[in-house]
Amino acid sequence: xxxxxxxxxxxxxxxxxxxxxxxxxxxxxxxxxxxxxxxxxxxxxxxxxxxxxxxxxxxxxxxxxxxxxxxxxxxxxxxxxxxxxxxxxxxxxxxxxxxxxxxxxxxxxxxxxxxxxxxxxxxxxxxxxxxxxxxxxxxxxxxxxxxxxxxxxxxxxxxxxxxxxxxxxxxxxxxxxxxxxxxxxxxxxxxxxxxxxxxxxxxxxxxxxxxxxxxxxxxxxxxxxxxxxxxxxxxxxxxxxxxxxxxxxxxxxxxxxxxxxxxxxxxxxxxxxxxxxxxxxxxxxxxxxxxxxxxxxxxxxxxxxxxxxxxxxxxxxxxxxxxxxxxxxxxxxxxxxxxxxxxxxxxxxxxxxxxxxxxxxxxxxxxxxxxxxxxxxxxxxxxxxxxxxxxxxxxxxxxxxxxxxxxxxxxxxxxxxxxxxxxxxxxxxxxxxxxxxxxxxxxxxxxxxxxxxxxxxxxxxxxxxxxxxxxxxxxxxxxxxxxxxxxxxxxxxxxxxxxxxxxxxxxxxxxxxxxxxxxxxxxxxxxxxxxxxxxxxxxxxxxxxxxxxxxxxxxxxxxxxxxxxxxxxxxxxxxxxxxxxxxxxxxxxxxxxxxxxxxxxxxxxxxxxxxxxxxxxxxxxx
Length: 622
Description:
By secondary structure, this protein is mainly β.
């Protein structure tokens, strides 16, 4: 009996060794190579409002969002197994065979690339070979520069590459010695272009001075773009028709970025030098990136009419197209000094989440709106906007044509005698913080829902107005709503829209501004400080209605607006000192979120505490 048992054990041992040889090797030590470890993409973003029990890792859509169109977008902490071993790794539970490839500036494309000691030289070489779910490309510190091609090409193109759920293909900057040195990418056109791919992660790169978008994604899904630093140079503004290095300068154009050939690039030159362009891409995550000194920060969707588009897929031999850019999450990104919008959602965007981003502008530029929403069913929440050149957050259509029955509701308006279909409707804008908008322009607004939009919900936002702006303004308002129909404005906090007139007199401007024929469907449970303008006019202007600046009045009840709102003679927040415009603009970007949150805490005894229609605080802070 013992002989038979021993024989069976030998057979089992041989069989186990033959099918699990890779796993056995994985447990063996390898000289000068680190052991297996887990690298977690940080998506556990802290809640902007400490009292709000809304976890960012599983955002829940409001009732106004269209249910069931796609996978519900979620910020999911994705575990990426980075195996520092010079051979194939076999995942026995899934049957997936994956490899880790290495790239270094000192490498060679004739190497095998599967060891840190035998890396490839070009990232593209590794990208072309990494085709299996779970494959990982680790790019060591150094400068990787595109040395040939055209402005429509790029340093790295990721075409028709597909990981799987839980097993992304990962392209990642890697600093094994913790030197603190970046992995820098520079391209003629794009640094990284992703086309027709899925379940792919790009993480941790330093990207500078590309001609078009630093990172773009077209007709792809389940893409993760995280922890990248995109920054272009800035050496000032064109003062006129300057010659020499900056030919073609027009007044106000930004100058200072340099092309990979060494020639300078003038920003705002009709070329979108954008941080990221996300086109017809779905169910993807754009998280924890830092973007500075670009024309636009994150450009989501396509401009103009909503139609099927291939987003350059045909340039790479792929027969792909898509109508919508939807189901994406933009969260935890820091964006500073974009010439145009920091975040823009175009007409073909729907069911996207823009959440917990921090946007700031510290200089005068050609920009208009920090966060622009031109699509529908999008949720915009818990963002911080400081120093927007003109407008903090705006809902606005781009006059698209009729995309057909897939568009949902048929909200329309007439422009130049032509019936147009709205693209901006039923967006949910809530728990955002907008501080000191319209720094340099003669008019501006904290938040706007324009007459080309409809049915937007604007709730629980904190808007702190211009702090002694130096320009002589024509119109300011904390919130302007001239939507066609169904827009609601509730539980918002508006504080001190202050500016200096040409005579040097500090004046208070409107808080809520609307016009006859474009009034919101509801406006109630809001707070206004101060309650009067300098000429003793009410700070709420709703067409010719003439709202009295106090709540529970018979006139408010008759008109149906602001009956339960608060009109205060003392500010419920600290708005000077550490919370002043100058202080917030001078603060390091990484500290801005915490400072704004502290400034947004209601003062002791403030009437806004528990005064919202839902029993919480008026405004964003809870």
